Amino acid sequence: MLTRETMLDSGTVTIVVPVYNTERYLRAALDSIRLQRYWDLEVILVDDGSSDGSTRIAEHMCAMDDRFRLIRTNRRGPGGARNAGIALASGTYLAFVDGDDIIPTGAIARLVASLRTSQSEFAVGAFEHLRGTERWRSPWVQQEHGRSLQRRTLEDVPGITRNVFPWNKLFDRAFFLREVGSFPEGTLYEDQVPTARAFVAASAFDVLQETVYLWRQRESGDSITQNRSTVEHLHQRINVLTEVDAIYAGAFPKTVHRDWLFKTLNEDLMPFIEVADQGSDDYREQLSLLITTLWQRLTAAEQQRARAHHNAPVVLAAKARNYEEAFRLLTD
What we know:
By secondary structure, the protein is of the alpha/beta class. The protein has helices spanning about 5, 25-35, 55-65, 75-90, 105-120, 140-145, 175-180, 190-200, 230-250, 255-270, 270-275, 280-295, 300-310, 315-320, 325-330; strands at about 15-20, 40-45, 70, 95, 120-130, 135, 150, 170, 205-215. The protein has two domains: about 5-225, Alpha-Beta Complex (Spore Coat Polysaccharide Biosynthesis Protein SpsA, Chain A), CATH 3.90.550; about 230-330.
C-alpha cells in the first residue's frame, strides 16, 4: 500500500464526477472521495443543470476542500458532463465516479499502487451493488475478479469485456486521451464504446480482486439503467451494440468477439426481454431483429456450441416475439 510520502511522487489522480439531480446521494458520494487515503486528487464536479439541491452540496464541498472544483454544463447528459471534466483534467491518472455512488476509502490507492508496479495503461477493479445497507457482487464479478492480475490483455482474460463501466477503472490519462478520446453524447449507453476501445487498444491492463466501487441500485427505481421498456431506449441500445460489435470484431484473438457475442446474447439483453411484454409490437420486432443479427455473427460451429450449452439466444428470440423465431434459429 502506498504511504503518504510515496503518494506525493505517484502522480495526481483526476476524478470527474457528473452531477445531475442526485441530492439524496451526492454528499455520501463526495465524502467517499474526500476521505480517500490517496490524497493527491483533483476532483472536477460537473453540474449538468441540476434543479434540486445538488448544486448547493457541490458548492459546499468545494468551499470545504480545495481539491474540489465545480463547473457547469447544460443538460449534456453523463457523457457530455464527463467530456467537460476530461477537457480540464491535469492529473497523471483519470477516474470517474457517478454522483449517486460510493468508492471505498482505499480504492484509489489500490488502483494507483497497481499501475505504479505494472506500468499498465489502466486498471480495473471489482465492484459491488449497493441498495440501502446491502452489498453484493454479481456472479460474473466473482469469476472475473477472483484474483488480482497485472499486465494482462483480452487474450488472457476475454471475459473481462463484461466489465463495461468506466467508474471502476483508473486510466493513464495520456492513454485515455490518445486511444479513447471522449464519451458519446446524447445516448443512455455512453459507457460501453469507450471501455471497449480501451480494452482493445491497451498493450496491458491490470485486474484487481479488491472492490473499488459501490454501484447504487436506487430503491426508487429511477436510475437510467433501471428503465428499459421504451422503443427509444432499445434503439439506443441497438446503436451502441452495433458500434461495440465492430470494435470487438476487429480484435485479436477472434475468440474475444465470440465471447462478447455470447455475453451480449445471454446476459445484456435479458433486461429488455423481461419488459418486452410491456412494450409495443415495434419494440418486440426490433428486439427480435437485434437478437437474430447478433446470432448470425456466430459461425455454425459456435451456434452449435451455444445450443449444446443451453445458452440463451434461442430462448430470447422466443420471448421477444414468438416461437416461430426460436424454431428458425434452431433449424437453420
